[in-house]
Amino acid sequence: MRPNIITPTKPKIPEVNEINLSDNNKIYTFHTTRTDLVSLYLIIPLGYKFANNPVIGKFAWEMIKSGTKQKTAIQIAEEINYYGASIDISVGPDSVNISLIALNNLFIHALNLLFELLTDPTYPKKELILQKQETLGILKIKNKRVDFIANKNFFKLLFGNNHPYGKHIKYSDILLTSRKNLITFQKKYFDFSNSLWGLAGNYNDEIIRFITEHYDILPHLNIKDLKLSAGMPSQKQLHINKKDSLQTAIKIGCQIKSLKEKDYPYFLIGQTIFGGYFGSRLNKNIREDKGLTYGIYCRTNHFKHQAAWSISAEVKAEQTNFVIDEIKKEYDKFVNDTISNEELDRVRNYLMGTSLFAFDGAFNIIKNKLKMIDLGTSMKTYYENLFYVINEAKENEIREKFVEYVPWNKMIMVTVGKK
Questions:
Q1: What's the pLDDT score for residue 336?
Q2: pLDDT at 8
Q3: Could you tell me which residues are beta bridge partners of residue 218?
């Protein structure tokens, strides 16, 4: 027997608790007894854009596990394993994301280690050599892929070579990075004044007390955010020749407004219909009906001060121009022709379902709480508006906002492959 399908029209946004720290900062918390795990999330708004060489900013944060004054990299790795913990570090242009996960009965021990890593990294020369070798090896492999080359040149063209969102790591950036560079960056930019803290899982008062008592040992330098304006692209089209490539990577897109804008959900619905999920128009035409690619999709990259929208595909070199023409045909059809109720209802249900993953468990709730604050909005404001628009948006409003956000005359295009 087929089960009843229940479509939530106004999902409840989970309430997140706040605990004050010493300098008007807060820890956002969500407690659950459904797990024995505890997770701490940190967002520090001091990414690699604060370094002239992006590798310095990345390595300074990523290599905190490579040694302290008290412990070697091996000892740190063994201690993390002993606690059954996980410490993950991700460095972007604007912010650094750090997460610590461990069982609640060992969480304070793992937390004590994390505070040591954040306050006392030494960046041993031996570990830096290994990090540089590994990064060089990965970059050499990536630079053989047409999709990677297209992606980095797309952002370079879109934002400019000197803008943090357009700057990508070069071999020389890796080779020129020294231990002294990392130590200087750490002393100057390891600042937790404006950091975001989130705690989720089955934590207790002892864990809260440990964080609040140790928060003040972290550096508080009150560094102001670095805002750089992005200029207009210097050219609309770029082709990079790769003689030995059987495939051509296509990347088409433009700068757009950020998700904190109230009308963004209208664009999100349009993006999804056009190319944002497996049942999208681009995928149906170019992948399913014509078999020209294994996958074509569009997506939005959300940075702190800007966003970028792009269409991506890899196709046979000789089919490149035909696929670009088909993308333009689908774009024109989308903005000019009425969206059927059946297609719109299908995407409403899809977006409602995928959006609810943001609240699937304590860990996701806290991660999304911090993410929305970091992007300049709040979880409650964004999702209440999103759910309202998903349910109430009219098809003409969706098409109007789509073309307002991504007018074809603003598009730039990068292709990488055979001429």
A1: 96
A2: 66
A3: none
Encode burial over 49-69: b for 16+ CB neighbours within 10 A, e otherwise: bbbebbbbbbbbbbbbbbbbe
The reported pLDDT for the residue numbered 230 is 74
Residue type, 147: D
pLDDT at residue 365, as a whole number:
97
Closest CA to 283 of 312, 309, 321: 312
Q: Secondary structure of 342-407 in the HEC alphabet?
A: HHHHHHHHHHHHHHHHHHCCHHHHHHHHHHHHHCCCCHHHHHHHHHHHHHHCCHHHHHHHHHHHCC
- Retrieve residue 77's tokens: 């790795």
From the list 323, 298, 296, 105, the residue with the least C-alpha distance to 206 is 105
Strand partners, 100: 40, 87
Residues 6 or more apart whose Cβ sits within 8 Å of residue 84: 102, 103, 106
> Residue type at 182?
L
User: Cα(374)–Cα(397) distance, rounded to whole angstroms?
Assistant: 28
Distance from C-alpha of 268 to C-alpha of 355, rounded to nearest angstrom: 11
Q: What is the pLDDT of residue 162?
A: 87
223, with CB counted inside 10 A (0-12, 13-18, 19+), is middle
Cβ neighbors of 281 (< 8 A, separation 6 or more) are 273, 274, 275, 330, 333, 334
Are 303 and 255 a contacting pair, CB within 8 Å? no
d(CA 333, CA 271): 14
Per-10-residue mean pLDDT, the chain, length 419: 66 92 90 97 97 97 97 97 97 97 97 97 98 98 96 95 92 97 98 96 96 94 85 88 93 95 97 96 95 94 95 95 97 97 95 93 97 95 96 97 97 94
Kindly state the tokens that stand for 297: 């999709």
Rounded Cα distance, 95 and 43, in Å: 6
